[in-house]
User: What shape does this take?
Amino acid sequence: MLKPRKRLTKRKLKEDKFLVAVGKVSNWINDNQKILYIGLLIVTVVVAATMYYSNSLKKSNNLASEELLKAMRSYDARDYQNSLAILNNLVETYSGTASGKVGRFYLAHTFYQLGDYTSADLQFKKYASISADTFLKAAALAGSAACMVQQQQYAAAAEYFMKSAKLKTAQASAFLLDAATNYYQAGEVQTAIDVLDQLLEEYPESPQKSDADLLKAMYANHNM
Assistant: This one.
């Protein structure tokens, strides 16, 4: 005689489905154990690399800051040769750090103090191309212009002083006056007068106003 089939409860059905699902997962893990291991290994490596990079970055920033401080002390003491050695190493080794970038600005100034205007000009331009600080960018462009003045490249110097002035920092009127004097030195008298007019129009209350008025009158007489 056949025994009556047991009626499956909802709970029993859920338990059976769960066991089937667990079995499937277990089989999949066994079949793909190598893939899972590799995946876990990749995640572990990525996490470890991220932590290592973060720690290395902090360490690099700290070391760069220490080197910059040493260089600044030497620069302030006018020990330019020692400052130059430290800064050269700083910008080569820690170029990606904030201190490394500021170090390039000091490196340019150090070359300038040593009379190497070509190298100073190069470093000023490099710093201007990477600086996110408007004030320091304008100062670097003006530094490049100053190097050109030392090499009697007056027209080029005037153009860089104009670039500095366009950034509208607190020194913009002074840069315009420098641009005008260098245009005049380059023989571009009318351009010099135009720049002085710009200075007087845009910065009528600037400390450079009286000098601009005087130079404009002098340059106008030159044109007669």
